[in-house]
Design goal:
Domain PAC: 398-448, 529-580
GO molecular function: kinase activity
Coiled coil: 571-598
Domain PAS: 449-526
Pfam families: HATPase_c, HisKA_3, PAS_3, PAS_9, SBP_bac_3
Largest sheet: 5 strands, mixed
CATH superfamily of the largest domain: Periplasmic binding protein-like II
Number of domains: 6
Structural class: alpha+beta
Number of helices: 22
CATH topology of the largest domain: D-Maltodextrin-Binding Protein, domain 2
Strand content: 15-25%
Mean pLDDT: 77
CATH class of the largest domain: Alpha Beta
Oligomer: single chain
Shape: flat
Helix content: 40-55%
Distance between the termini: 96 Å
Low-confidence stretches: 1-27, 267-272, 796-800
Number of strands: 28
Length: 800
């Protein structure tokens, strides 16, 4: 049991990968917001590799890297969408010097030691490489190092961490140092050493060579090499991102990586030459037996085919005749068209069930009856003319409509088709009867529908039309124009339908180009179209019209446009009056706002100058009293000190009131005013505020600078009250003759489309922008912050 237990432990230690529990698929790497933001700005990273097989090697012919660490980092870069720059070094010392020189950002396949902890930030282990005991294939499994005697030599690479570990923990071992792992295996093959100790990666590289095919893994020393991802110590967020990426890699992908690069390969039975010789001999015997069996089967099959071929052909021919006969009779019996076979004397020789049902007779009741019983107007003379015409192939008598007399006395409208037939030395005239009752009803319903449509279109307060292309010439024509045209434009439908008239000549000359563009585009793309503009009546009166047309394809494939022309003159007049009213209200609001700002500036100057001068004189008088009488009375000195402090507070209050009415910083330019307001916002809310303004900014007029500054104040007030943001960014740029100010925050955001009855800040900002002739764009989503962009046109003198 102890031996089985040790074998199970060895099998478990052979697992090279220590991966945290995670899903087999990689839906994506989940990062914290700070990590995602850092990664967005650091997509391009530099990877350092130590050239050591099988972890990393360089193919000089293809000029590319390959190996276990190369594939691992490539998968990690694909998951994190990184742009990597690869750099390789001959050993660990050169890699660490490159890190200290700032030439690389991270490196895979590192081992954490006290010395390396001062240079790298390490991730959790992503790969576990066991240290294995290798011996002859016929040696016992489960070798324990503590039970080896001094007569059994153990080859190990010296100097190295593995040799130091064995020397410190297994004093009984007879260690034999070698410069590399290959020589250690060669000593075991040559019998100069009993075992060799090396890591699984090097054994995987060497086990593929035929020289070491007789060696096998016989144990594990229990000291795995834990491979980690190391990153530069000044980027802790890079270490966190790499850790998240490693955790998101599927365990199956890491297992496949281990199988390709690190798992040792041993000779299989298929690699033995004797195995292939025996297999070829066995396949040859099986092939000979198969050929003999095939020849015998072919001989029996040919005899059976000859005996069955004649019978098969006879059965197929008989079955085809019977099937054709049944199919023909079934088609005739199930046909919805009545079929009559009539002899030269006009008597019926055959009638299918459809003809019997159509004429109201029972089964077999139509036989031997003359056609004159069903068609009273059919005389014998006319019948003979039909017979002769059908017999000679005259197309003039082939098809016509008539009324047949049913058995109940009713007349049935039918369409007759005649066809001459010779069958078994006899001549017949086949009469096909099709009931056209539904067709007549549909035609009557169509006429009634057209009459109803004309009545509706004639009462519509507008002009209804149909537009289509002339199939012959390809031009446009109006096959239908409603009677409402005369009330709308004074022209009759016939005048508008004239090729030289149409709707285009009704359009006002100033709007005709736009109308042609819209209509030509719709006709070219075969789509609906709509247009609004001015039209002229016969009397020269100008009216506003709304023309809409929808496309429809007829049964013959022809495309038509059904449309209507509405008179919207009253609506346009009301719309223009409303627009003029809104423009006047906006001009009034702009005037009131300008007067308000001027009044604020005047009050601010008077408060600052007049009240400031009085407070200065008052402070001087108190100071003079303090110099003259403070030493006479200590209580008076204390009172004077209190008065001076109150005067100083009043000074600050005067400055705050003047600044609130109109900040003096506006006189220094809008850029300085924005920077000043941002610093005041930071001091009041403790929210970092990043300001980006150009160095050389054109001077704005006082009204425009004040309006832009007030919009910024309102935006920052909204951030302070509602956004719950962590940072704010203000940007002022000059682009294409415009000055654009953008205020962005990373707060909770909101839905701009949702009505907020008590919110007038956005309305006020939008009105200020419209007063200055600018535009405002607001973008916000719940949980994604808010972005406000305001653009105003620079004045002509400013642009100059």
């Amino acid at each position: 049991m102890k031996r089985v237990h040790r074998l199970l432990m060895i099998g478990c230690l052979w697992l090279p990968l220590m991966v945290m529990a995670r899903p087999e698929t990689l839906p994506g790497v989940t990062l914290e917001p700070t990590q995602q933001q850092w990664l967005e700005t650091h997509r391009s990273l530099r990877v350092g590799l130590v050239l050591q097989a099988p972890y990393a090697q360089f193919d000089r012919r293809l000029q590319q890297l390959y190996g276990a660490n190369v594939e691992l980092v490539s998968s990690l870069a694909k998951a994190l969408h990184l742009d990597l720059t690869w750099r390789h070094y001959p050993d660990q010392a050169n890699l660490e010097r490159a890190l200290q020189a700032g030439e690389i950002d991270f490196a895979p396949g590192l081992t954490q030691t006290p010395a390396t902890l001062r240079l790298w930030l390490f991730s959790d282990p992503y790969m576990r490489v066991p240290q294995l005991i290798v011996g002859p294939r016929n040696a016992a499994l489960g070798v324990e190092l503590e039970k080896l005697d001094a007569a059994q030599r153990v080859a190990v690479r010296m100097p190295g961490v593995l040799a130091n570990y064995l020397r410190a923990n297994y004093g009984n071992l007879n260690l034999q140092g070698v410069p590399n792992d290959r020589e250690a295996l060669q000593l075991v093959v040559g019998g100069q050493a009993s075992y060799a100790v090396m890591d699984e990666a090097q054994l995987s590289r060497l086990s593929r060579e035929s020289e070491f095919s007789e060696l096998a893994v016989v144990g594990d020393i229990g000291l795995p090499q834990l491979l980690r991802m190391g990153s530069r110590p000044d980027w802790p967020l890079l270490a966190e991102v790499l850790e998240r990426g490693l955790q998101a890699l599927p365990a199956k992908e890491l297992e496949q990586l281990h199988q390709r690069w690190l798992q040792p390969r041993y000779p299989r039975i298929s690699e033995s030459p004797g195995f292939w010789q025996n297999l070829a001999l066995l396949l040859g015997l099986l092939l000979i037996c198969a050929l003999i069996t095939l020849v015998w089967q072919r001989r029996q099959q040919s005899q059976l085919e000859r005996s069955l071929l004649a019978t098969r052909e006879r059965l197929v021919e008989r079955h085809a005749r019977d099937e054709a006969s049944r199919l023909s009779q079934f088609a005739i019996d199930q046909s919805t068209v009545g079929i009559l076979w009539v002899n030269w004397d006009s008597h019926v020789r055959y009638a299918n069930p459809a003809a019997e049902r159509m004429l109201g007779y029972g089964e077999g009741a139509l036989l031997e009856k003359p056609l004159g019983d069903f068609e009273p107007s059919l005389s014998m003379e006319r019948w003979l003319d039909l017979w002769k015409g059908a017999r000679s192939g005259d197309s003039g008598v082939g098809q016509f409509e008539t009324r047949c007399l049913r058995a109940d006395g009713r007349l049935l409208p039918v369409e007759l088709s005649l066809s001459f037939l010779r069958f078994r030395d006899a001549e017949y005239l086949v009469v096909y009867l099709a009931d056209v009752t539904e067709r007549h009803r549909a035609t009557a319903a169509l006429r009634e529908s057209e009459a109803r449509l004309k009545g509706i279109a004639g009462n519509v307060p507008g002009l209804v039309f149909r537009l289509e292309r002339d199939p012959a010439e390809g031009g446009l024509e109006f096959p239908y124009v409603s009677e409402g045209s005369e009330a709308l434009v004074g022209y009759t439908p016939g005048e508008i339908q004239h090729p030289q008239m149409g709707l285009r000549n009704l359009v006002h000359p100033d709007d005709r180009a736009d109308y042609h563009r819209v209509q030509d585009l719709a006709l070219a793309n075969e789509q609906d179209w709509a247009w609004q503009g001015r039209i002229l009546t016969r009397q020269g009166e100008q009216r506003w019209a709304d023309i809409k047309a929808s496309t429809r394809r007829l049964g013959n494939g022809q495309l038509v446009w059904d449309g209507v022309v509405w008179d919207i003159t009253q609506g346009k007049r009301a719309e223009r009056a409303l627009a003029r009213s809104q423009e006047q209200l906006r001009e009034l609001s702009a005037h009131l706002e300008s007067v308000r700002e001027e009044e604020k500036a005047r009050i601010a100057r008077e408060v600052h100058d007049e009240l400031g001068q009085m407070l200065t004189v008052l402070k001087l008088e108190v100071s003079m009293c303090e110099l003259a009488f403070a030493e006479l009375d200590p209580g008076l000195n204390e009172r004077l000190t209190t008065m001076k402090r109150l005067i100083s507070q009043l000074f600050q209050l005067v400055r705050d009131v003047a600044t609130a009415l109109r900040p003096p910083i506006l006189d220094a330019g809008i850029a300085s005013a924005i920077e000043w307001q941002a610093r005041r916002f930071e001091a009041r809310t403790q929210i970092p505020c990043l300001v980006q303004v150009p160095d050389h900014l054109p001077a704005l007029s006082d009204a425009r600078a004040t309006g832009l500054f007030r919009i910024l104040q309102e935006a920052l007030t909204n951030v302070m009250r509602h956004a719950q943001a962590h940072s704010v960014e203000i940007e002022l740029v000059r682009e294409a003759g415009q000055l654009r100010m953008t205020v962005s925050d990373d707060g909770q955001g909101f839905c701009p489309d949702q009505p907020r009855p008590s919110s007038f800040g956005l309305v006020g900002m939008r009105e200020r922008v419209l007063m200055m002739g600018g535009s405002m764009v607001l973008h916000s989503e719940p949980g994604d912050g808010t972005r406000l962009s305001v653009a105003i046109a620079l004045e002509q003198e400013e642009r100059t």
